[in-house]
Amino acid sequence: MGKETIINSKSSNHEINDDNNHVHQSSSIDYEQNSDQSSSLLTNLLPIPPVSTGKRNDYLIWWDYFMSIAYIVSLRSKDPNTRVGACIVNDENRIVGLGYNGMPNNCSDDELPWFRTNDDPMQIKYLYVCHAEVNAILNKNSYDCKNCSIFVLLFPCNDCAKMIIQAGIKRIVYLSDRYSNDIKFKASRKLLVMAGIELIKYQPKQRQILIDFDQFIDK
Ligand SMILES: [Zn+2]
Predict the structure, then answer these.
(1) Beta-ladder partners of 199
(2) CMP/dCMP-type deaminase domain: which residues (predicted)?
């Protein structure tokens, strides 16, 4: 059965692969706990304490990085109400697919409607828009998405849930579940739980990230 987890990145054990910091930290603690045995033979077997290398500490951790990319990708969307981005990552932390919500290829997003409601039922966007998750799966640059994670800003709808399951994606990491009372999202959750997909509501460690091109632009 699927399981749902709400995690805060500060306490997440999902960060264990993020870098070697955790290993260094635990080694350091072990070393200090045993430092009173400095004359014993054991001392020679203890881990060497970390040496400061001057490495930055405020770099983006992996999950914040993937969610940031999903966010950046969402900025490509032309939808005036809902911008969604998706980033598919394999188990080696490599990005294999990106997508945002938009009109299908070769279908003009200047001609098709972006309205949520309209007197003319043909003028409603839901008939035409491809969701971010679907685009990310279809745009993938790997053979398949088996055992991948998908990072999305919003919990996926039921149509995307079907695609995610069929693509072999095993984990969904999302920020917002704001439409959880909508029947499409209830059906989505039902399917995803039934299929054993891991569902993680994520709270990024870095809540805001500034992109400042100016610091690289030659004056
Ligand atoms: Zn969807």
Answers:
(1) 4, 172
(2) 61-199
